[in-house]
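Morning F.,

Quick status update on the modeling queue. The single chain you submitted on Monday has been processed. Sequence for confirmation:
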Amino acid sequence: MYSKYHGCGNDFIVGMYDKNIDYAKFSQKVCNRNTGIGADGLLIAKVDENKEIEMMFYNADGSRAPMCGNGIRCFAYFCLREKLVDSNEFKINTLSGKMGIRVLSREPFVGEINLGKPNFSSKALGINTSKETFLNEVIMINGWKIKVDAVYMATHHLVVIVDNLKEVINSDLGEKLSKHKIFTKGINVNFVQIINTKEIIMKTYERGVGWTLACGTGAAASFVILNQKGLCDNKIEVKLELGKIKLSYNENKEILMEGPAVCIAHNIEID
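Structure tokens below.
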């Protein structure tokens, strides 16, 4: 049995681990919006002998990704509903490490995720460059000079500050940046429009998915870059198409992300 959740519109199929399933193929099947259930990704809960929980995350195209900010809130809510945990504070293992979860509200669900510290290493980001970091760089796309900043924030992210999000969404800029040859592992591209020092709006082109309604780690990556440039405060609100995410630093300079998760359907049988 599977369930479907969303976090600010970023939607996922969620279920328990089955060793007999090839999840790379399965995610392509169930995430297809025409012939499957339809989702941005697949989240699988794998519990080991010590009752530690791992979140296995697959994009809609079948590729495995390290982490997902909206996904992990949905996953945390799933763990509560399925009684995999009974505490309001617990940890989830991911390919990006152990993530701390704090449940602020069970119904409706609101969770705070400790995403850890940002990593600016070009090597960690899989960028084909001799430079140690990829900040304040320029990439040529369609004859235009695009100013970009890259940061590993639980997964691979590129941040582009723009004046008008609507113009970007109607172009192929997101896809071309995401698939640019310099990014050997591909990259999520976050386009950010600044409202003021406390609010931004953003849109993300995710590798393996395309345009999404929301991206939690992308919001965190955008916050990190803007804050580093002195363009936003140490606590901001990110406005997405179907909700809001709050981002801040804790005393250890780790990134905290607060946002909702909603269960759309559960006990879904998939052939």
